[in-house]
Amino acid sequence: MTNQPPRENSFWPNVKKTFLAVLHRITHNWGWKLLSVLLAVCIWGVLVTQDDTLPRTKTFTNVKVSTANSTILKQNGFIVVDGLDELEPVNITVQLPQKYYSTATEDRYMIRADLSQIKEAGQQELTLTATVSNPSAYGNVLSISSPTITVLVEPYVNRSRIPVQLNVTGQAPEGYYTANPQSTPDSLDVAGPKSVVEKIVRCRVDYDLSLLPAQAGSVRSSLPYVFLDKDGNEVDSSLLTVTNQGISTRYVVVEQNVYTTMEVPVNTQSLIFGQPAEGYKVTSVTVDPQLVTIADDDLSLFQGENASLYTLGRVNISGETQSKTDIITLNSRGVAYISHPTVTITVEISPIDNAE
Fold it and tell me: Residue 25, Cα to own-chain centre: how many angstroms?
């Protein structure tokens, strides 16, 4: 057995030597090395920008949220009563080809609440869906900042033949008469949230006569309506669908005939027939009222100086010994309106004074 000197461990000296060599290479001519790195980055950037197919992400803020398939929801028997009035805009992140990065705008992306997801009444949470116009160019939506919305849903019900009532106010223009206005239609059909439809008992249309023109003729007006509950309070109709014979209706047509008026005297001739009893005589004949207002499209027949209205009958005083009062109908044929269809005729009968 020979005695040999121990061999030195060469690991750590080699590591140290390698480290110093690497450090020398890094620090030696470091300016050129840094320039090389920067040049490489620039070349990489140019290559990247030249590759139109590389995907990039882009963020849009305050993107409007809309709804879809509300008609389908109603066909399914439901309607949203709360949660859609003011939908908050959202932020979206999209991925698209670099070629279209600069031309992509937020209007290329539609964020919607699909109401056809709803299958029952009550509070419901809907997931927002994204649609991209031309996906091959504008990519796809990666994320939505608020991906769901909460809405309140009620059953959607129908009621038919809600009566229309005219609330007539004001006065016709001076010198004119208005006949009873007529509404078309005289009833409406409604559909909407169950809690609203069940409150409705009638439809009211406000009609102001003072707004009519001062001229004879037929006037047609398209007027809005309101729905009332049993206590006369107005019912919110913003979610109602109103129809007449299946056609959507926003107004009620009111037709009004306007006539010229005239005061005409009652003819006081030939108001009685027969003779009172022997020894009696007629001392006076009076008629009340003496003037009657009439209205019609054409009153030319009553514009003469001696024009008057005649009665359709006379007071029979045959054999009477005392005064007599009777109500007689006026001949109003040919006029649309007469203020007093009848007049009261009073015949004063007195004994004959023998001294006469």
Answer: 81
In 3D, which of 111, 108, 113, 176 has the Cα closest to residue 136? 108
Distances (CA, A) of 353 to 278, 282, 308, 349: 12, 12, 35, 12
Rounded to whole angstroms, the Cα distance separating 35 from 32 reads: 5
Alpha carbon distance 10, 273 (integer Å): 159
The phi, psi pair for 122, rounded to 5°, reads: 105, -170
Q: Are strands 109-114 and 65-68 parallel, antiparallel or unpaired?
A: parallel
pLDDT in tens, 295-342: 998 888 888 878 899 999 999 999 999 999 999 999 988 899 999 999
Distance CA 241, CA 222 (A): 18
User: Would you give the DSSP letter of residue 172?
Assistant: P
**Rounded CA separation 27/31 (Å):** 9
Q: What is the biggest distance separating any 2 CA atoms in the chain, rounded to whole angstroms?
A: 198
Tokens linked to 92: 């979206």
Give the CA count within 13 Å in the CB-facing half-sphere of 215: 4
39-74 pLDDT, tens per residue? 666 655 555 555 556 889 999 999 999 999 999 999
* Residue 11 DSSP label: H
Q: Are 181 and 254 in contact (CB under 8 A)?
A: yes
Q: Would you give the DSSP letter of residue 266?
A: B
CB distance 329 to 342 below 8 Å: yes
Which structural domains are found in the chain, ordered by start?
Answer: 55-146 (2.170.120.30), 156-260 (2.170.120.40), 266-351 (2.170.120)
The DSSP secondary-structure symbol of 232 reads: S
- Reduce the DSSP state of residue 270 to 3 states and report it: coil
Q: What residue ranges of the chain have pLDDT lower than 70?
A: 1-17, 19-37, 39-53, 354-356
Residue 108 has phi, psi (to 5 degrees) of: -80, -10
